[in-house]
Amino acid sequence: MARSLQDPRLSFYCEQYDHIAHRMNHYVLQFYFEDRTVEIREVTKNRLHLKRAHFPHLNRDDFKVGSSLSLLGGVIKLTAYADEVTRELCGERGEVTAVMFGEQLLPQLGRCLAVLTEECGFVALEMQMAWLPVETAAAYGVPPDLVEGRIVVVKCANTNALQRGIDFMARMPGARAAESVEEVGRWEQIVEKAKEQPVAILGDPNSTVVIIKPHALQKLAGGVIVQQLIDAGLEISGISLTNMTSQQANELLKPYKGVLPDFPDTMRSLMGTVWVLQFVSLDEGVDVVSVAREVCGPFDPVIAKELRPTSIRARFGVDRAHNAVHCCDLHEEGPLYSNFFFRPEDVDE
């Protein structure tokens, strides 16, 4: 998948109907626009379906979500962007800015994100929680009133993003938005530093992780879901926007193989942009895993609507695979999921 704006390729999820097997096959397509070559891999097993080949008739403008491409006598439909870089390269994002929320806004973080994405129309490209020493915070241009404590930085895009970010500050007192391209660049460095040194708590047996799935984010439900979990009394201790690959989804769900009858669909439902949230509790008597599981609701949205109609899956779930969120079912999964998403690469097991 495309890793940066300098990466000369576009990545899309796509599908093609197999008229012999009478089924829809799902792939990830890479288009290298500098030499007009295409490579296609299977979504589930990452096996090579089409070795990188030259298609001189294809242009960068041909690649848009919803487009159908004629390749090797067949038709492939592009169904979704496979990463946020591709979406940005395709020109749907416009200008980039960064916004910052301090410790005092963390109890309202979901509402902040809902206003940012739902009401103001921003699309989150990167999101990390960080804690910086005073001297480091000053070097990165963190506002003085946000230096003490944790901060959440969101790199996001919109048309006329810098001005709209400033307008967002007026709607969300306490939030900060970059006021120049240079400031955006400094705050982006905070995001990268947070990836290297996550603030999430590792090894806490009374912690849980909730993953907001791509389809729920496409519905702009991310902020509402975050706030519903916070309002249940949970303390957010880590947050990250991640582009989940098929390999990562398969590894994460490995314990469910042979257990979930719709395992392939469930795995695919996690592929793409997800928000990963770690929660703990300041009250030692609170069972964090149980509280989060109750807020998320039963796995099947149909059952959730009957038993817990106000739960996240009842409100935003579509079917068993696209059930809005994935959360820890067992207490031992909290530390495991935290290590999976938040453990720095240079930390030994």
TrEMBL record:
One of its GO terms (cellular component) is cytoplasm. GO terms for molecular function: nucleoside diphosphate kinase activity. It is found in: Cell projection, Cilium; Cytoplasm, Cytoskeleton. Its EC number is 2.7.4.6. InterPro entries: DM10_dom, NDK-like_dom, NDK-like_dom_sf, NDPk7B. It is an enzyme of class 2 (transferase). Residues 6-94 form the DM10 domain. Pfam families: NDK (PF00334). CDD domains: NDPk7B (cd04412). Keywords: Cell projection, Cytoplasm, Cytoskeleton, Kinase, Transferase. Belongs to the NDK family. This is Nucleoside diphosphate kinase, putative. The gene is Tb04.2L9.1240.
